[in-house]
Amino acid sequence: MNRGEITGEKSLGGNxxxxxTCFDADDIIMLAASESELQEMMDRVERACKxxxxxxxxxxxxxxxTSETSCNIRCGNSVLEQVDTYAxxxxxxxxxxxxxxxxxxxxxxxYAITTQLKSIRQGWGPWRGRVxxxxxxxxxx
Length: 141
What we know:
The protein is α+β, with helices and mostly antiparallel strands. The chain has helices spanning about 5, 35-50, 100-120, 135-140; strands at about 20-25, 25-30, 60-65, 75, 80, 80, 85-90, 90-95. Helices cover about 35% and strands about 20% of the residues.
């Protein structure tokens, strides 16, 4: 599947109508100025997927707007779920652009890893009874 089948042009990323599509592996972000443009892009994605024998999992496909307006974008026979935040490439994206949830999530993950490393430093498991020098401990962090 190539971008042109979805964006309607051969250019990289956007097209003359202001629509934009960003691809990464099996993830796609589609940005449009109106609900009708977004539905048109979704329809093009569906057609391109069918052409290559791929299916879109409508349960995993989410919709987010930057306004309080609700959208009814259809994927196959299903209306896509509208969310306020979603995870994309390890980052939490929110509809208002606030990154507080993303920062808190990253701090929590870092704290969990640090706690696990502390147990190694204190002699847990195979390290029990051994002193692990800071020289070896710091590169692990």
